[in-house]
Amino acid sequence: MLYTAFIFGLISSFHCVGMCGPIAMMLPVDRKNEAKRVVQISLYHLGKLTAYGLLGLIFGLLGKSFYLAGLQQQLSIILGILMIVVAVVPEKIFAKYNFSKPVYKIITKIKSSLGQHFKNKSYRSLFTIGLLNGFLPCGMVYVAIFGAIAMQSVTLGILYMILFGIGTIPLLTAIVYLSTIFSFSFRKTIQNMIPIVAILIGMLFIIRGLGLDIPYLSPSDLSLFIKSEANCH
């Protein structure tokens, strides 16, 4: 299921262009020294990947606790359903309830810190901008987090989030160089594909949780659950 992280990151990067694109275009990079600019952009992406990796660590631990409790299948099905819900329900509906309100002060501090680092062209600032940006609320990141939890492993949770982040790099790097890479109609088409991809990934997790004994796709109940007694034939 790890490959779904990269694919979703690649597709959702078109959404990121609208949300994180302005940040990428405003990065305090050196416009005259190409080699230095490449290093600066790489540090920005490294900062984001670090943030995603930390999120993978936190939610990977959560997923592992469900695994140890023997809730692998139920968790996979529930998270698959949540992915589909997030993809189907318009963002303005979630915004109405303002789920981020309890951590609003933290988010405000992150945004304030971002503004301060934009005034500095140091390598450390570029890394910090990416790091802080990775922690800003984003519907696409929430879907990826569901995937990290469903991995039910700390290592795989971290890897899932990092692969998601890597998938967003190509387009967000290109936008630093070109503000209008694709036509509006093309971007609109890709934007419409994002919910479809999220729904497909959600369905994959649901199928995985059903334990249909399909190799590589839906392991049997025997391989999904921790049993107190050995099952020998």
The average pLDDT is 78
SS content category: mainly alpha
Q: What amount of the residues lies in strands?
A: under 5%
Shape annotation: globular
* Tally of DSSP β-strands: 0
What Rg do the Cα atoms give?
19 Å
User: Which parts are unreliable, with pLDDT below 50 for 5 consecutive residues or more?
Assistant: 222-233
Structural description of this entry:
This protein is an all-alpha fold and 233 residues long. It contains eleven helices and no strands. It has helices spanning 2-19, 21-25, 34-68, 72-88, 91-97, 104-117, 123-134, 139-150, 154-177, 184-209, 221-224. The longest helix is centred in the N-terminal third of the chain and has 35 residues, at 34-68. 34% of the residues are buried.
Kindly summarize this structure in a few lines:
The protein is mainly alpha-helical and 233 residues long. The protein has helices at 2-19, 21-25, 34-68, 72-88, 91-97, 104-117, 123-134, 139-150, 154-177, 184-209, 221-224.
Furnish the topology, listing elements before pairings.
Blueprint: H1 2-19, H2 21-25, H3 34-68, H4 72-88, H5 91-97, H6 104-117, H7 123-134, H8 139-150, H9 154-177, H10 184-209, H11 221-224
Descriptive tags:
233 residues, 11 helices, globular, 75% helix
